[in-house]
Specification:
Blueprint lengths: L1 H48 L6 H15 L1 H11 L2 H22 L7 H26 L3
Helix pairs in contact: 1-2, 1-3, 1-4, 1-5, 2-4, 3-4, 4-5
């Protein structure tokens, strides 16, 4: 009886550890994918804002396309499903800052405009905070 209980306890412990490892790896991969999507979107917005010779309408189209092609919306909702509250809050803040930057480019702002530079700096701060929250989430207890 003692041997059966010891084996059962060891099996349950191993199963729990395996599940925790799997959840950790899933979160780590999702975080990496989401950060990459945000960075990709940001880079596309940067390119649109640097297109001074391009018409404002074309820059606006590029800004809108950056969000469609970046895949950040979809991944943001996945993060909201599995991440702890501090990551979700940082994710929302960073996403909104990036969306504000998109709106500004869509309105015709160029990369040299003061308003663009201010929003870019705000985005970079929030993006750094998101990375820190994600890192803390991965380093903390499961």
């Amino acid at each position: 009886m003692i041997g059966v209980l010891a084996t059962l306890t060891a099996d349950l412990s191993r199963a729990r550890r395996t599940r925790q490892d799997s959840e950790h790896n899933t979160r780590r991969q999702l975080y990496a994918d989401y950060l990459a999507a945000l960075a990709r979107t940001r880079n596309s917005l940067r390119l649109a804002a640097r297109s001074a010779r391009t018409s404002p309408e074309e820059r606006a189209r590029k800004a809108i396309e950056a969000f469609k092609e970046g895949n950040a919306y979809e991944l943001r909702y996945q993060v909201a499903l599995i991440a702890p509250a501090p990551v979700i809050e940082a994710s929302t803040t960073a996403f909104r800052a990036l969306r504000d930057l998109r709106d500004l480019v869509e309105e015709g702002a160029l990369h040299t405009d003061h308003s663009y530079l201010d929003l870019r700096d705000r985005w970079e701060e929030h993006f750094a905070e998101l990375r820190t929250a994600m890192r803390d989430s991965l380093d903390g207890p499961p």
